[in-house]
Amino acid sequence: MRSYQIVDWDKPLALKEQPTPEPRGVEVLLKVDACGVCHSDLHIRSGYFDMGQGERTYLAKMGAELPMTLGHETVGEVVGLGPEADGITMGEKCIAFPWIGCGRCQTCLNGDETCCNSPKFLGTRVDGGYSDYVLIPDAKYLFDYGNIPTDHAATFACAGITAYGALKKCGRLLT
User: Fold this and answer.
1) How deeply is 17 buried, as exposed, middle or buried, from its count of CB atoms within 10 A (0-12, 13-18, 19+)?
2) Element (H, E) at 130
3) What is the CB neighbour count within 10 angstroms for residue 96?
4) Domains in the chain, start-ordered, CATH in brackets?
5) Could you report the per-residue pLDDT of 4-52, keeping only the tens digit for each?
6) Which tens digits make up the pLDDT trace of 71-129?
7) I want to staple 87 with a disulfide (CB 3.0 to 4.6 A). Which of 43, 68, 97, 139 is the partner?
8) Is 152 within 8 Å of 34 (Cβ atoms)?
9) CA of 15: how far to CAs of 3, 22, 34, 68, in Å?
10) Dihedral of the alpha carbons of 53, 55, 59, 62, in degrees to the nearest 10
């Protein structure tokens, strides 16, 4: 498969050929149909987040390792299932929820994976959707996006969640 990866911080992405992953356990393999480009991808590629007043938080110090395939706004078709995967079928079109925790710490066990201190976030800590295929750790992170156009649906994995969270916090969601 082809993947566009960060091989050096603050350098252009490199096109790399690598084997297509084989799903194991409860993993699911998606053939990527679309992947959004988020402004945070630009920060991740640079290797740091600017915290203002000259302060930077470096991704390498936070556990990010190179090479890394960006892309946390991914939609695709289920083309492979680990032997223990359930709740999904081959051929389904899904959006991948990217904010995946380690699944072992107390924060994750409390249901707050997005706040995990050892995250497995797609496209930021593990390989994401700037690739022909992406490995999803469990079908529970895949959701049907209905009749929404594929390229539009991809943005919901980040921008859509951000907008939803803001509206929920300020009490502006319509039910």
Assistant:
1) exposed
2) none
3) 27
4) 2-169 (3.90.180.10)
5) 999 999 999 999 999 999 999 999 999 999 999 988 888 899 999 889 9
6) 999 999 999 999 999 999 999 999 999 999 999 999 999 988 988 988 899 998 899 99
7) 139
8) no
9) 6, 21, 17, 11
10) -120
Count of other CB atoms within 10 angstroms of residue 39:
9
Neighbouring residues of 116: CB distance < 8 A, sequence distance ≥ 6: 101, 102, 105, 107, 108
What is the DSSP track for 53-77? TTEEEETGGGT--SSEE--SSEEEE
Residue type, 133: Y
Per the listing, tokens 């480009």 go with: 37
Structure tokens at 161: 């969640």
